[in-house]
Amino acid sequence: MSKGQVILTLFFTIFLCAFKAQAFEVGFCDRMFIAYQKVAPEHNGLTCKKRFVKSAKTGRLKEQAELNRYPDPQFNILVLSPKWSTAYDISTAEIARDFRNSGIKTNFTLFNYEGNEIEAEAMITWAQLKQFDLIFSMGSKATDFVSRNYKHGTIPVVSACSKDPIAMGYVDPLLMKSQTNIAYTSLNINVDTQLAYIKSKFLSDLTDLAIIYDTNNTSSVVTQVRPFLSLQEAYKVKVSEIGVDLKDPNHNLERKMQEFVELDKSNQAKAFLVTGSSELYENVDLINAYAQNVPVLSVTPSHVEGGERSVFMAIGVSFESNARLAANYAKRILMHKGKPGELPVGLVKAPDIAINLMRKPDEITSLPINFLEDALHIFNSQGEPMKVGGLIMSSTQL
C-alpha cells in the first residue's frame, strides 16, 4: 500500500468514526446495552437508550448504548475498550453510577475498537476534535494501546480494569507515578498478600499450587503467573503452570489438570488458582469438572457467582472496587485536584474476598471466621446469595 493510500485510509476511518459517534454519541457497542438495561432500574436510574447502526467491520446491525445523556453535561468522557467483556460491562457501569451518585453530569461515549488499533487511534483523534475531557482505557489491551500511542496526549487518561502497570513496564517502580497524561490504577494486589492469605490464613498446609492461565493473555503471565513463581520458595509452596489456549480445540486442559489431581494422591494440600481472564471465566464449568475434589481458587472475586458456575473462593480485587478507584482518580483530575502524571498508581490495599460454599470441596471442613466476616460476597451451599457487596442478604445460617 502506498503512502497516499495509507493516508486516505486513515482519513476515511477518522471520518467514519466521527460520523458514527456524532450521529449516535456512542461508539461500537452491543452487549453493553444489555448490561446497562439490567442494572438501570435498580441502580439509581442509570439512563440508557437503544440505537442501531451498521458495524464498519461486519456490516451487521449492532445495538448501541447511551449512558447518562445530559443536554448540557459538565464533562464528556470516552470509554475505550478493545473487545466485549463482562468485566468491562461491570466496570463501566460502576464508573457511570459513581459519577451519577456524585451529582456530576457526565456523558459517556462507549467505543469498542474490536482489536483494530487504527479505529482506536481515529476515535481518540475525534475525541480531541470534540474536546473531550477524559478517556478511560478499559482493559489491559486498551491501556497498553494508550501507553504506546497516546503517552503525553492532550486528553487525560485513567486506566480501568487493567493489570499492574508497574509489572507491565508503564511506570517506574521507584516513582510510582507516570509523569505523563495517564493515571494508572491496578486490578492486581500484591501477589505476596494473596499468597499470604491463602497459605497463612486459609490452607496452612498447602504444598502444591497449580496456576491456570490463558497463554494469549500476556498481562496475566507478567503480573500474576511470574510473581507467584518467584514466591514459591518463601512460602514453601511448589507452583506449577497450566497454560492453555482455550480457543484451540486441542488445548489439553483436562489432561493437564488431571496430572495435577493425580499428583501424590495422599497429599490433599493442593489447589488450583485461576488467573484473571475472560476466557477462563467463560470456561469455569470445565475447570470445576476437571478439578474433581481439589479446591479451585481465583485471583479475581468476579469469578465467584451464585449457583454452580463459580470458583470456590477468590482473593483479589473486584472489578467494582477497581472501577470506584478509577472513578475517584477521574473526578480528581476533572475537578483539578490532581494531575494524571502526579497521581500514584492506584492500588486497592486490602483484598476483596468472595466465597461460594456450593463449590467447597468436601475435604475443607471449615473456613476462617475473618474470611466470612470480611467477604464481599458469600453464596451458601445451595449457591444462593447470603452476602452481596458486603451486605447481608439472607438470615440463612452457614
Automatic annotation (TrEMBL):
InterPro entries for the chain: ABC_transpt-TYRBP-like (IPR007487)
UniProt entry keywords in alphabetical sequence: Signal
Signal peptide start and end residues: 1-23
Name the UniProt record assigns to this protein: ABC transporter substrate-binding protein
Species assigned in the record: Pseudoalteromonas phenolica
Source taxonomy: Bacteria, Pseudomonadati, Pseudomonadota, Gammaproteobacteria, Alteromonadales
